[in-house]
Amino acid sequence: MTGCQPVPRYSFSDFILSPRRRTLLLRGRERPLIPRYFDLLVFLVERRHEAVHRREIFDGVWKDAIVSDSALSQAVRTLRRTLGDDSREPRFIRTVSRHGYRFVYPDVVEEVDDEALPETGIAPDRPLSQAVPAADPFEPLLRRVTDLARSAVQEEEQRDAAERLHALGTSEALQRLGTRPRHAFARALLRDTRWDVAEAGAVPILGAPGAIAAATALVRMRLTRARTVAATRVAGASLGGGLAGVVAGAIGGLMLVAAPGSAAPIAVAAVLALIGGCCGALGGGGVAAGISVAEAASRSQRMASVAGGAAAGGGFVGLGVQWFARWTLSALVGVQVEIGGGLEGLSLGAAAGLAYGLSTAGVDWGLPAPRGRRRLAAAAAVAAACSVAALALTLAGRPLVGGTIHLIAEASRGSQAMLTPLGQLIGETDFGPITRAVIGTGEGTLFGFGLALGLTRRPRWSRTSHRMLTPR
């Protein structure tokens, strides 16, 4: 490699690991791994002289996404099976309690990867230390995936069995599964684990026996595994949307106080900031919940799922705020105002979800969390999409937070929150269409930017534990 430092390859036991060619060979025959698992093996081998903390693994291997602890455990389990390792007496990968993992094989030879590798094929998927499997290796594994798991350990054993069935042959495993008891759950498990086995085949749900039950089990399975990470993302997006709302409300309030002819006191800025913060937090949480559920439940058709989930989450929260605000105003102060919310939340959510999906399309694992410029680019894309959606809503006569506050102020006697002076500041005689468009677009832009920054925050880790705490 002219002008660059040569890329090494590693030999250990009967294996050759070539990061340059992205190949793991066993006695000259390829052992297939999905890209993330291959990256994890390289990461551990490169840092074999130390015990690597889980935090460092997540930051190094899943640097553009957020995944759960169980995803890492699953990846290590697959690597051990590929290497013929045993977690109880590890030759290659050892678990370091409450810390992480270490590659422990003592005789690793590092050499320049500038020579041709041996001829490759696909190595059989059985541990080196075990004897040739029985005549029918499918049946014990099928019994395991159709059993009722009663503990977390049994659930992991089921996933391991499903991955082994994929390695033996997905099509034959499905054929043998048939319609035996709990076949729908087993089909869902095979569908979920197919993404973790490089040589896995397709696992159709629609048109298969027990399609509805299998789809339900699949969604429940994925949501259960992703609930902690999803909750963290929702909290981050709610915080980001809330801060954006506070900024928007405070800026609007200060401009209102400073506008010529305005009698609004400085306290209006604090009130508008509080209202904006509440609306932004609720909206951000709703949209993020829809996105997170969609990403966790559907690993295919991601774009449509994310846009639909974001629209549903935003619409649900917006509709709830709409009904609550109408009832509250009517019951407490007798003000009847046609407050929106449902359509606005759906539109902004769909725009945010579509832009977020497009800007994170390269992430094929976990929940996206780009860094640096990529994170800012994603936030800018979501902000632009939300600004366009907000402009379209205001032009269609559907006001957002600022416009709604003006409507409520108009319907109330003696209110000091009327935004007419802002219109005069812009050049209109009243709170006209240009003013509504400017304010609505600004709200949409700030909301989208804050939402995306909060949604893509990575978790903070404890110094003494590998558990995720709060986003950062």
Integer-rounded radius of gyration: 28 Å
The residue fraction in helices comes out at: 55-70%
Number of DSSP helices?
14
Into how many domains do the coordinates divide? 3
- In what order do the strands lie side by side in the largest sheet? 4-3-2-1-9
Shape: elongated
Number of strands: 12
Question: Which runs of at least 5 residues are low in confidence (pLDDT < 50)?
Answer: 126-132, 462-472
Terminal-residue CA separation: 39 Å
**Biggest sheet, open or closed, and with what strands and sense?**
5 strands, antiparallel
Strand content: 5-15%
Question: What would you note in describing this structure?
Answer:
The structure is a single chain. The protein is built from 14 helices and twelve strands. The protein has 472 residues and is an alpha+beta fold.
Note the topology.
Layout: E1 8-12, E2 15-18, E3 23-26, E4 29-30, H1 35-46, E5 52-53, H2 54-61, E6 65-66, H3 69-83, E7 93-96, E8 100-103, E9 109-112, H4 138-146, H5 152-177, H6 183-193, H7 211-258, H8 267-297, H9 302-332, H10 342-359, E10 367-368, H11 372-395, H12 401-411, H13 420-426, H14 433-455, E11 459-461, E12 468-471
Helix pairs in contact: 1-3, 4-5, 5-6, 6-7, 7-8, 7-14, 8-9, 8-10, 8-14, 9-10, 10-11, 11-14
Compact description:
The protein has helices at residues 35-46, 54-61, 69-83, 138-146, 152-177, 183-193, 211-258, 267-297, 302-332, 342-359, 372-395, 401-411, 420-426, 433-455, and strands spanning 8-12, 15-18, 23-26, 29-30, 52-53, 65-66, 93-96, 100-103, 109-112, 367-368, 459-461, 468-471. The chain is α+β, with helices and mostly antiparallel strands and 472 residues long.
